[in-house]
Amino acid sequence: MAVPGRIPVRFEDVFPHGAFVLGVEAANDYDKVKAKAPDVQARDKDTGELVWSVRVMDADPAARKSELKVKILGEVAPVPPDPMPGTPFRPVLFEGLAVVPYVDANGRVAFSLRAAAMRPVGPVASARRPGPAVAA
Question: Cβ(94)–Cβ(136) under 8 Å?
Fold first, then answer.
C-alpha cells in the first residue's frame, strides 16, 4: 500500500471550532530566496501554479498552535471573505483540504495544509432564492 503525498481530510476534523483568515501572502520558495532570484514565489511542483499562504487562526481553545498556514494554488491570490459585521473576524471554510506530511529540518515528521479553495462561512449568495413572504 502506498501512502499518498496529500491525505484528504474534512474541514471539520482539522478545524472543529472553525477558522478565521488573518491574511493572504505569496508563499516563498526558499531555494529561490537563497539564490536571490528575482521572483521568489513558490510554484507547485506538479501543476506549476503559484502557491499562496493563507494565514489562519484556529478557533479551537485547546489547539497547540493558534495560527496556521493553509496553502492554495492559483495564478491570482485567493480573496479572503468579508469580516463578520461589527468585528474584524473573517470566518472561512476550506474546500478540498489535505494534510501533506514531510520531514522538517530537525528530522521530525511535520505537516502542512493544502486546500483547493476557501469560501465564506454561511450560505452562498447565489444559492439564496427569493420567494414569497410566508405569513405567520
Answer: no
